[in-house]
């Protein structure tokens, strides 16, 4: 062809988003665009071949190669796809407004079934200029009698076209890297980038380091050909048939686990997984894994990788995937997603909403089927999956509605119960009240009391449980959660205190004086349990107000606004308490009675919450004093 020069035609409509992306997005997307184009070029040729519109050699094998070369500071992207004629270069490269991908899909849309054309995510071919001083295309079209074309541009606004010496079908893009982008010449860095985007590309992808190879050949010649072993055939760096494309019926547990480890570099086995595989009404494939938490208080940290025709798009795109699902780990391939549009568009796209609610439904279905058919495993998984389920319920009403009957609670009587079962079991003792334990160690004394009285509480000790309980209270009319130390149930008390009214008021005055805290209420009860002298109760309401003010008070001290409503319950069936009553008129024992009452209070406090440092030192000093009295 005759040499030709010209200006690349750009209209302002598409230059603005381009400049913006140019400035803000990650540099490595140029490689995503160029290899995607190479993949598109091959898929187009495959399609043409399948329609009998291309003549290919018998030993035709498709592949894409990326070659980094530190010596001449270039990156080459090679493909043996359909190539371009000079007319096509003029149309698709020189005029940014045209997308060959869109044209191709338009042209063959009736004839092609599953074209797997990627198209561009944003910048397309011109992203090459994000990292290059100069870009060169050498391309030879598959068409009979086509002539190879060379296209060169220094900066992306002017180009030169001429004949190319390329002799084999396909395209080579050569990037002459700018000084500030030389990091991509590093083989390791390039491998990482390619693996990130193309670990599952359907066409074999190879990476070569030209500089390193030149070095190796030099060494070999120096060794004078001693090493005669053939080098092993290079391996593609991608898996062209990822597991999510396989029919779930044909996948084994081993395959799912292996895939999980490989993709997420997590060597803990996942608990279970969901294989999404649908073609209609939209195309959605993928695998979602429920990870195992490493320790009890770990918050789940998931990762959902989104793919578009087997090319990685991004992690955790919240416009497509319901936020709570991001606590899981998984891969999703949605080739129907409109990727070329802005995120805010995605958010309001009815189609995207459908995908998102389909995934939500699938997750709920899987959990329900486990609950119904594998209850034992479900119980076992619960400690790992409960933060996820609860968070999902808080974030999404629809999800709550689907899973509300399969939420389970760990019971102090052992095993797990649903809310319905709990209320049913305990309706005679405390209708509609759910007693719960937020800290099994701290509340051990109260749990013991519950057990002795054949009462049941549930363990709700995760970070998310406060929110979760409020949610349930707002959803299930009448139900109220009460922490196990919030109240003494009638079931634990004997009919009457067994002591006179005078003695009751004596105890009240005695403890009021010794403890000297006017906010503390004193109450006398005869518990069925005779071994405990006293317990401290904290009203559920006031505790919640305090917790809220701590969380939202922004460091302001609001404790005076929400005083702690604490009650010291003295147990009149306990011997020690009885002994104090007996000593009421004994002047010589007055000091001892004071010591004992202070001690009773501290002990009750200690099984309720941690003592403050000052109270703790007093407690220790007093303990020593009491021991001294024994010797
Ligand atoms: P898109 O991929 O969305 O069409 P690009 O800017 O990435 O947009 O590419 C523009 C066009 O240039 C492509 O559609 C294609 O027609 C042509 N093209 C780019 N790279 C190649 C290639 N390696 N082989 C053949 N054609 C290519
Ligand atoms: Mg493209």
From TrEMBL:
InterPro entries: HATPase_C_sf (IPR036890), HSP90_C (IPR037196), Hsp90_fam (IPR001404), Hsp90_N (IPR020575), Ribosomal_Su5_D2-typ_SF (IPR020568)
Sequence intervals crossing the membrane: none
GO molecular-function term, one example from the UniProt record: ATP binding
Positions annotated to bind ATP: 33, 37, 79, 84, 99-100, 171, 343
Region spans: Disordered: 212-241
Annotated keywords: ATP-binding, Chaperone, Nucleotide-binding
Sequence ranges of Basic and acidic residues compositional bias: 212-230
Family membership: Belongs to the heat shock protein 90 family.
Entries under NCBIfam families matching the protein: PRK05218.1
PANTHER family referenced in this protein's UniProt entry, alphabetically: HEAT SHOCK PROTEIN 90 FAMILY MEMBER (PTHR11528)
Protein name, UniProt field: Molecular chaperone HtpG
Species this protein is from: Ruminiclostridium herbifermentans
